[in-house]
Amino acid sequence: MKHVIIGNGPAGVIAAETLRKLDAKAEIVLVGDESEPPYSRMAIPYLLMGNIAEQGTHLRKDQKHFFRLNIRLVNARVEKVDPAAKSVKLANGDALSYDRLLIATGSHPVQPPVPGMDLPGVHTCWTLADARQIIAKTKPGARVVQMGAGFIGCIIMEALAARGVKLTVVEMGDRMVPRMMNATAGGMIRQWVERKGVRVHVSTRVEAITQANGALSAKLSSGESLPADLIISATGVRPNIAFLKGSGVNTKDGVLVDDQLQTSVPGIYAAGDVTESIGLISGLPQLNAVQPNAADQARVAAANMAGKLSPFQGSLAINVLDTLGLISTSFGQWWGESKADGGDSAELLDAEKFRYLSLQFSEDVLIGATSLGWSDHVGALRGLIQGRVRLGAWKGRLLADPTQFMAAYLGAAQGTA
Fold first, then answer.
1. Least C-beta-crowded within 10 Å: which of 331, 339, 387, 399?
2. Which residues on neighbouring strands pair with residue 329, listed in sequence order?
3. Nearest to 176 by CA among 161, 159, 155
4. Reduced to 3 DSSP states, what percent helix, strand and coil does the chain have, rounded to the nearest 5?
5. Distance (Å, whole) CA 105 – CA 85
6. Which residues contact 311 (CB under 8 A, 6 or more apart)?
7. For 325-413, CATH number?
8. CA separation (Å) from 355 to 174, 227, 251, 359, 366?
9. Residue 332 class from Cβ within 10 Å (0-12 exposed, 13-18 middle, 19+ buried)?
10. Mean of the pLDDT values across residues 76-86?
11. Could you read off the pLDDT of 6-30 as tens digits, one per residue?
């Protein structure tokens, strides 16, 4: 059996390792299109901070790890998948045959249609090559404008602030991390960030970037212009699916899969950020580009590729963010459900101490949660949501006091109280 995996990020690596555990004799090929060892994009901010060296971003620190597992690494870009021939065409002219194929190609940064995005000094922060250029240009006191304050943007922002730059963040949404936090939590994160010396614009977009005498300038929709030595675009990502055109693999926003993470083409599977799988709460296809989902999907897809039938229970939004020392989380359907559909909620706010809890229910099941300034036992919120635990009388207690979520987890999920 020959398995080809397109994409050597976390999903691809975990899938390859899982396949090797399940089949000692299978041929496994792991394809990546960057001239780097398999690495984690989520480690790049720690590289920018100076907490790790480049090797610290590598997913497996032992240089002989894949050799020992007899996993062949191929450095090439995939141009086309031909299911009829069970072949993958590479940009260098080579082709790889397969019995089972896994698409784990992740995402790519979205470039907004802003004049001047191609100017020198305007960068994404997505690859190690990007990181090297940003490190060279972010000396203490450098003027940096960052476009985007989503989840990835906030992680990048933390790294830039640690480098001592003069940072301004421009977010087109009405709050920071709008796809992770509700209005209350997103507004509190903005207040916290501004107290730490980062200037933030919301409900604002960069309309044009110009350059004169080596200096950049970002023109905002508010009419203000921001001088900059460096502009970073962190305005979101999209799944890498263009190479699947004509393959017969059904896609929407990402690659559509069934509960075994198999695509519309038998023998072709998908895992990770590229995958549009059934949501645990909604029951509808959705993208959840977070590493815990990528790891879970990689293991399930690999098991099914190896013939060990294993269903995927559904993807779940799992967001944990440290923004300049303020911990925030959101799990599941954090925006809640309408009362007409059985929705209910509980909220606790201490604005002065930057502490906030929001619990969202569907009947007596917790379906979503948001927390700010809480770090103890927040995993219990995920446990209640992911386990779809019937709370019974515990729901009333949580409506009265949302801080009792750990006791509710022990009582309702574990039966210990």
1. 339
2. 320, 371
3. 155
4. 30, 30, 40
5. 21
6. 259, 260, 300
7. 3.30.390.30
8. 21, 35, 40, 14, 20
9. buried
10. 97
11. 999 999 999 999 999 999 999 999 9
Q: Give the C-alpha separation, 118 to 120, whole Å.
A: 7
As a whole number of angstroms, the distance between CA 250 and CA 257 comes to 8
CA distance 417 to 410: 6
Decide if 368 contacts 335 (C-beta within 8 A).
yes
Amino acid (one-letter) located at 191: Q
Q: Which helix (H) or strand (E) holds 359?
A: strand 355-362
Which residues neighbour 410 within 8 Å (Cβ) at sequence distance 6 or greater?
380, 416, 417
Question: CA 336, 337, 342, 345: dihedral to nearest 10 degrees?
Answer: 30
Tokens of 362: 């569907």
Residue with tokens 């508010």: 222
DSSP state of 61: -
Q: Check if the beta carbon of residue 277 is closer than 8 Å to that of residue 314.
A: yes
Tell me 16's DSSP state. Answer: H
DSSP code per residue over 131-190: HHHHHHH--TT-EEEEE--SHHHHHHHHHHHHTT-EEEEE-SSSSSSTTTS-HHHHHHHH
Confidence of residue 405 (pLDDT cuts 50, 70, 90): very high
Give the tokens for residue 193. 């960030």
What does 269-321 look like in DSSP terms, one character per residue?
A: EE-STTEEEEBTTT-SEEE---HHHHHHHHHHHHHHHTT-------B--EEEE
| Fold agreement (2-108+238-305, 122-235) | yes
Q: What does the pLDDT read at residue 144?
A: 98
Indicate the CATH number for domain 122-235.
Answer: 3.50.50.60
Considering only 135-144, 203-212, 230-239, 405-414, which range has the smallest mean pLDDT? 405-414
The matching CATH number, chosen from 3.90.190.20, 3.50.50.60, 3.30.420.40, 3.40.50.300, for 2-108+238-305 is: 3.50.50.60
Q: What crossing angle do the helices spanning 291-305 and 10-22 adopt, rounded to 10°? A: 30
Put simply, whether the predicted model's pTM sits higher than 0.90 gets the answer: yes
* Alpha-carbon span 252 to 244, nearest angstrom: 12
Task: Tell me: pLDDT of 305 over 90.
Answer: yes
Q: Where are the domains of the chain?
A: 2-108+238-305, 122-235, 325-413
- 411 CB neighbour count, 10 Å cutoff: 18
pLDDT at res. 284: 93
